[in-house]
Write the structure tokens for this entry.
Amino acid sequence: MRWKGRRQSSNIEDRRASSAGGLGGLRGSGGGLLRVLPVVFRFLGVKGTLAVVLALGAYSYFSGAGLGDLLGGLAGTGAPSTQGQPRGQIEQSAQEKEMVEFVSVVLADTEETWNSLFQAGGKSYREPRLVLYRGAVNSACGLGQAAMGPFYCPGDQKVYLDLGFFDDLRQRHDAPGDFAQAYVVAHEVGHHVQTLLGISAEVQKAKRGLGEVEANRLAVKQELQADCFAGIWGHHASRSRQLLEQGDIEEGLNAASAIGDDRLQKQSRGYVTPESFTHGSSAQRVRWFKFGLEQGTLSACNTFAADEL
């Protein structure tokens, strides 16, 4: 990809310093909580302690701060806060630094595509933020862990990414290349587009009362549409801004195939159960990503009305 020297997004939220060590920070906060409670109990008694905990709980609820972090801070034993830590204090290799720049350029280019398409449709595109983290991260959708892979949270409209996933994509799934990585980012941004268009809310509404198999089918259609939306970005990145080079499309298609449900299930347990698919088979993911790449329009991505996925 011809990405170097291009505009970087201002919507990168770097939490790699605060999330380093994965769950270690959470354990540290819990330790502070356990140590401080006996002290508070001894000085204030049961009622006084309960009042303090309830007050801190209310503050935690409305401020978004963790109760364990608040009490751990009072005792001086909680994990140190890294909020507002200067980006220069993040320890990273030269390779990781370049990867951050790459992700930022890709995100900026998705902004170009979706701002343009939304404007053409008489709508306003609200750009998502992309959160970089290491190990584990708190989101409006709960605790996210690197083992889950990249994810989008509609609750806060943010994409969450541990850069280590790209190593996993290359080594474990045999899907190397910068466009393979860009496809992953564009897919998660595709979920943001679904949220803005009201598609995600409709899917969640339709799932109510359905059995697991039927709900999985809807989930697959939603994921395949996000693949198609990623293809739309690739179409415009290539046609309008000449971002793609020879071999890039093949890298993206290989990545889409590598993370199909059938291939992942075969690798992990040796057999495949199609009724449990939640993202689609390798062939389906490749097919819908190609639709987006070739057509470049939202109308090409209506997986919900398709007779065959």
About this structure: DSSP finds eleven helices and six strands in the chain.
